[in-house]
Amino acid sequence: MCKLNELPNDENKYNKILSYFDTDLESLDWEELNERAWKKKETDGWYKKDIFEYQTATGWKHKNSRIEMEIDLFSNASEVNRYNTNAMYFSVVWRTKRYYPDGNEGSGFYWSEGRLGCSDISEYNMNPKEANNAK
Fold first, then answer.
1. CA distance 117 to 69
2. Please, which residues have CB within 8 angstroms of residue 64's CB and are 6 or more apart in sequence?
3. d(Cα 37, Cα 51) in Å, to the nearest integer?
4. Residue 22 region by backbone torsions, left for phi larger than 0, else alpha for psi between -120 and 50, else beta
5. Range 87-108 average pLDDT
6. What is the pLDDT of residues 112-135, one digit of tens each?
7. Rounded distance between C-alpha atoms, residue 118 and residue 102, angstroms
8. Distance from the CA of 17 to the CA of which of 27, 50, 62, 105 falls in 20 to 30 A?
9. What would the pLDDT profile of 17-58 be if each residue is shown by its tens digit?
10. What SS3 state is found at 79?
11. Distance separating alpha carbons of residues 40 and 34, to the nearest angstrom
């Protein structure tokens, strides 16, 4: 799923990503997305003048008990639509079912569940044998 972010920003990529939300560019609820849109700050890492000045997001969708996902859309116009969307980023989070002790004296100690997301998954992490050969 995260590999979709590496595709070129075009209609094909966007429709592949949207298919996980049972929709496509044609039937996406743009009115609802524009209610959530915001102007990005120039200090934001995603900001690019006249390209990524506005952002909106779908909100998290639970695919099953372990996977949740969200789409971020970037535009140079305050009213985001299918024609001015310059990029789309697919966020996916997996619950690992691996627990570790967490907390501190103030909050108390408890078990937290590990999570992996698109930023945690890379070829280096997925292919440690290849990564060792690259050293």
1. 9
2. none
3. 15
4. left
5. 91
6. 999 999 877 644 434 444 434 443
7. 23
8. 50
9. 999 999 999 999 999 999 999 999 999 988 999 999 999 999
10. coil
11. 14
